[in-house]
Design goal:
By secondary structure, the chain is of the alpha/beta class. 35% of the residues lie in helices and 15% in strands. The model has no long low-confidence stretch (mean pLDDT 87).
Length: 199
């Protein structure tokens, strides 16, 4: 019998709009829905909080002036129940199909993996710049790619953007084993929290 991996999802929001509603609906319609969804909202005034609470998410408010990507995601993690895997997402990433979470967490059958990033596909209504950026990204490739391990001195001179390209973790849709995340957590940063976690 296949082991069931219990997931919790953390999503930072600010005026999420229609794509955020689609993201939540897609998560709730998974074959194996998350055990919990935590939304860390930094001052939405467009109904984002109402949408989240109506769909059963726990909402943690943070002042927009205090919002930082690393600490906000850590705050969301701290509000989750004791799940096996935490999935960090962004408000406009809409899972494709009802097996998104199962396929993402299914990679953890390999006990040596600590984190997994999902493939990214630009939405149908994406502009030319967004489409071009995503399609040129290593996160757009369909084939699995394993990265690391790297020695610290190999990575020490690289900036977060270079780590991100090399280590291929992206918090647009990032699953991390709970014990791994508990040991590392996101750093207090405004940018590159996922690359720093990978490092």
């Amino acid at each position: 019998e296949e082991e069931v991996i219990e997931t919790g999802v953390v999503i930072p929001t600010l005026r999420g709009g229609a794509r955020f509603r689609a993201c939540l609906d897609a998560l709730l319609n998974q074959e194996a829905p998350p055990a919990a969804i935590v939304v860390v909202d930094s001052g939405s005034d467009d109904g984002t909080v109402k949408v989240a609470t109506e769909r059963g998410a726990r909402v943690i408010p943070v002042a927009q002036s205090n919002f930082r990507h690393g600490p906000a995601r850590n705050l969301g993690f701290d509000a989750l129940p004791d799940v096996d895997v935490v999935v960090f997402m962004v408000q406009d990433a809409v899972p494709v199909g009802p097996r998104f979470l199962g396929e993402l967490t299914g990679a953890f059958a390999d006990e040596t993996l600590g984190a997994v990033t999902a493939r990214q596909i630009p939405p149908g209504d994406a502009g030319v710049l967004t489409r071009s950026t995503v399609e040129r990204s290593p996160f757009h490739e369909a084939l699995p790619r394993r990265t690391g391990p790297y020695k610290r001195d190999e990575l020490a001179g690289l900036d977060p953007a270079a780590w991100r390209a090399l280590l291929l973790l992206d918090s647009i849709a990032l699953a991390v084993r709970r014990p791994v995340f508990e040991a590392l957590r996101f750093r207090d940063t405004d940018f590159g929290e996922d690359a720093l976690l990978a490092y």
